[in-house]
Amino acid sequence: MRTAEQVGKLVDRWRSAGRRIGFVPTMGALHKGHLSLVSLALREADRVVVSIFVNPTQFGSGEDLGSYPGAFNEDLAKLEKAGVHCVFSPSVDEVFPDGFSTSVNVSGLTETLCGKYRLEHFNGVATVCAILFSIVKPDIAVFGRKDAQQLAVIRRMVDDLRFSIDILAGEIIRECDGLAMSSRNSYLNSSERKQASVIYRGLSRATELVSEGERVAERIYDAVREVIGTAPLATIQYLELVDPVTMMPVEKLTTPALLAVAVYFGHTRLIDNVILNR
Ligand code: AMP
């Protein structure tokens, strides 16, 4: 479906029939990570809507909006096979019509990690999710833990703006060598792709250290940097231990904390994370 009106009418019919509605927002180029969120939504709801919308407002200038991978027909086939009830793929004008002037700014937790480097990114994400939530009016919406800061931002926004939506989180789905699945992995050349598994090896080293009793963030960073540093093509943008709800830095592990990392391989920026001290 292409318009908000079409989707609105369909979900109104479902709701009148007492159906529980699930929603999975995506930007397409679907992989098993996305499909795991779809399975979770299908388990938790009677009817599932998946959106495919490459949201221009969450890309900064100089980022990959123009080259973002698309595979619309393949995506539709995957979603149909999975048993999704509606695919919503609006145009940019449908989501942001002429005169659109609103921005949802979630402050505080958008100022660390990715927010430090992608200044308008989370405003774009929060705004588009607020619009999509208003169109689809789901009972539940599913987001991946791969984008842990995004998940925290959406949870905050849903609480603050009192959307009555349960936000569910799907685990990170990985390739065989541990690399977190991402639409952006297709940008990697073969040597970058081979080396990219170092990110997960670094995070796993952190988990191991913590299980041996390490609690000091700086010492965990040193160990992870050492592992990621073995890949000559890797450049770390940030590596930070934060509170999983507020995204504020943590110096010493006393409760569960999120170790999040962004690494460049050439022009490709990859993110990943792990919860330590679970
Ligand atoms: P995107 O299409 O990149 O905007 O992602 C749509 C949703 O899929 C977001 O909630 C992501 O967190 C989630 N997602 C992306 N990659 C993965 C992955 N490897 N495992 C689990 N969820 C993922």
Question: What descriptive keywords fit this protein?
Answer:
single chain; alpha/beta; Rossmann fold; Pantoate--beta-alanine Ligase, Chain: A,domain 2; five-stranded parallel sheet; three-stranded antiparallel sheet; globular; binds adenosine monophosphate
Sequence-ordered SSE layout with sheet pairings:
Elements lengths: L3 H13 L4 E6 L5 H13 L2 E6 L19 H11 L3 E3 L3 H4 L18 H4 L3 H16 L3 E5 L3 H13 L5 E5 L19 H6 L2 H14 L5 H12 L5 E9 L14 E9 L2 E9 L2
Parallel strand pairs: 1-2, 1-4, 2-3, 4-5
Antiparallel strand pairs: 6-7, 7-8
Helix pairs in contact: 6-7, 9-10
Bound molecules: adenosine monophosphate.
Describe this structure in words.
Helices cover 38% and strands 19% of the residues. With 278 residues, the chain is of the alpha/beta class. The strands form 2 sheets. Strands 3-2-1-4-5 form a 5-stranded parallel sheet, sandwiched between helices. It has a 3-stranded antiparallel sheet with strand order 6-7-8, covered by helices on one side. α3 (72-82) links the parallel β2 and β3. α6 crosses α7 (148-160) and α9 (198-211) runs antiparallel to α10. Adenosine monophosphate is lined by residues 26-27, 33-34, 36-37, 143-144, 146-147, 170, 172-173, 180-183.
